[in-house]
Design goal:
The chain is an alpha+beta fold. The chain has nine helices and 24 strands. The strands form five sheets. The chain has a seven-stranded mixed sheet with strand order 11-10-9-21-22-23-24, with helices on one face. Strands 12-13-15-17-19-18-20 form a seven-stranded mixed sheet, covered by helices on one side. Strands 3, 4, 6, 7 and 8 form a five-stranded antiparallel sheet that branches. Helix 2 packs parallel to helix 4. The N and C termini lie far apart (about 55 Å).
Length: about 525
């Protein structure tokens, strides 16, 4: 059984081998032996676009397990026929990292679309399409971002991805719960193979199951992705190194840190992300014997049009307040721990990083991609309050610090995107949510799920919760789908899209609602 890598030197060497690229003439490659099966069953992907480069990803799967390394060729071209090669190189696929590769391509032109592919002997991968970011300081005319989250396999098909691909986004912003760790669900739309996901082998198999979906594969191949995670990539409601969910079956896992390390390694193996995420985290491994860090929070500029900030709300947070295991609705009046000023949702180091990132941002729009609903959502009608303590509502002091940073640094046009709740919520980000007359300083779009079911109470009480929380102007829980946000120098237009029937792979889709925000005015208007 494979185990997560814990030796820092070994993993640094492997990461370097699987990310280092080498430019060579097209005819200079050695040929590999003929393969007995297609090794590209998981498709191809790209991510982390810069003005001069991008990460290209694939993971090889074989009919029989392979214990040896493979050398893959890659090509980036100006045309789909690969008659005009822009860059080419090679990368190693090693068994210790599941034969996953992350080719970090450099030397590309800014603000350009490219085609790419991998080659292993005579086996050629599907062709992917990717792009670079605009040059620093460039006045980009447009950025189309598809945002999505929560794609539980057995709850439905991924038709939403097919419709988002037709919308031709420049980027996909994935906000967490790429997989789920559960053994299955009642009345599944499609079956899950395997039981509880606990080991590195389990996590790899679950990612491979999700990546077998043709619509998800096609969306990965259509444009670069930026990704963060939530809890189900490891375990429901985990917080830092606290396991969170107290279900009896999970008591059979004696070392949650080891399980988390396995989950993090599997996430890295299956995402088009930079190797620096892993090496930065491993630099402190010897001082963190409880488990390796994988630093995924990052900042990316899209010329002067937008700056994107991706956050990690799981790895560094404090435990949820006033409960033993995981998330729960709590009454703040009965939970003194809830309001303690030192409690953090992001962790002190990430909070400091974000403060500095916001201070130096030159983007006209500042996109903050994170896991869940940002604004408070009181679940108790009338007097008193009840908040779900697993999201920002469980860490009010941390939310206040972020609001203060946005105002202190005069951050231009903040826009929050979130997922997690399997519902659509649209609202204004307030300078002080405790004051009814507080000014709006930004806007928020918390998206529904790709396939994961919403709770019955969420569907029944959306209108009631809207009335109780007037900083939100739209809320619904009945539909699965995605969001499409189009940024220009003058305005943001966000479209909420819903699939007609998540139980059908060929489902159609339609528009639920559309909203506009003009630059310099944190005011949502219905489109």
């Amino acid at each position: 059984m494979p185990h997560p890598l814990t030796d820092r030197r070994q993993l640094l060497q492997l990461v370097a081998a699987t990310a280092t690229t080498l430019w060579l003439p097209r005819g200079a490659w050695s040929r590999s032996a003929r393969l007995q099966s297609d090794p590209y069953a998981l498709g191809v992907a790209s991510g982390a676009p810069l003005p001069d480069g991008v990460v290209l990803w694939t993971r090889l799967l074989f009919a029989e397990p392979q214990a040896r390394e493979f050398t893959l060729r890659w090509e980036v071209a100006h045309d789909e026929a690969f008659t005009r090669i822009a860059r080419s190189g090679q990368v190693q696929a090693v068994p210790a990292l599941g034969h996953a590769v992350h080719a970090e391509v450099q030397g590309l032109e800014p603000d350009r679309w490219y085609f790419y592919r991998f080659m292993l002997g005579e086996a050629v991968s599907p062709v992917g399409r990717t792009r670079t970011a605009p040059a620093p300081g460039a006045e980009a005319a447009r950025l189309r971002v598809g945002y999505a989250s929560c794609q539980r396999w057995e709850h439905g098909y991924y038709a939403a991805w097919r419709h988002l691909r037709a919308d031709a986004p420049d980027l996909v912003l994935f906000l967490g719960d790429y997989i789920y760790e559960y053994p299955g669900a009642q009345n599944p739309v499609r079956p899950v193979t395997g039981g509880w996901v606990l080991t590195l082998e389990d996590y790899r198999a679950r990612y491979a199951l999700h990546r077998s979906d043709p619509d998800l594969q096609a969306m990965h191949a259509a444009c670069p992705w930026l990704l963060t995670w939530d809890d189900h990539e490891v375990q429901n409601d985990y917080a830092g190194l606290h396991a969170g969910n107290g279900m009896p079956v999970l008591g059979t896992v004696p070392d949650f840190a080891a399980r988390r390390a396995a989950a993090y390694q599997a996430w890295y193996e299956h995402m088009p992300v930079r190797a620096s995420m892993l090496t930065r985290g491993l630099s402190g491994l010897q001082q963190r014997p409880q488990g390796a860090e994988l630093r995924i929070h990052q900042q990316l500029a899209w010329g002067r049009l937008a700056t994107l900030h991706l956050l990690d709300g799981r790895q560094y947070r404090d435990r949820q307040a006033c409960v033993q295991d995981g998330g729960s609705l709590i009454d703040p009046a009965q939970c003194p721990e809830w309001a303690e000023p030192q409690r953090s949702y992001l962790g002190a180091a990430q909070e400091q990083w974000l403060d500095q990132a916001l201070a130096r941002s030159a983007g006209r729009w500042n996109v903050i991609g994170q896991q869940t609903l940002f604004g408070p959502r009181d679940a108790r009608p009338g007097p008193g309050q009840r908040f779900w303590n697993d999201g920002w509502d469980g860490y009010p002091a941390a939310r206040t610090r972020l609001l203060d940073a946005l105002q202190r640094h005069l951050v231009s046009n903040p826009v929050f995107f979130g997922g997690d709740v399997h519902e659509n919520w649209v609202g204004h980000v307030k300078a002080d949510y405790a004051r009814a007359d507080s000014a709006a300083i930004g806007v928020e779009f918390c998206g529904t799920s790709i396939s994961s079911r919403a709770s019955a109470s969420g569907m029944e009480r959306a209108a009631e919760r809207l009335a109780e929380n007037p900083h939100f102007i739209y809320g619904e829980a009945r539909y699965r789908g995605y969001g499409l946000a189009e940024f220009t120098p003058q305005r943001l237009r966000t479209t909420l899209r819903a699939v007609e029937d998540v139980t059908r792979a060929d489902s159609g889709a339609y528009t639920l609602a559309q909203f506009e925000v003009h630059t310099g005015r944190a005011q949502l208007e219905r489109g």
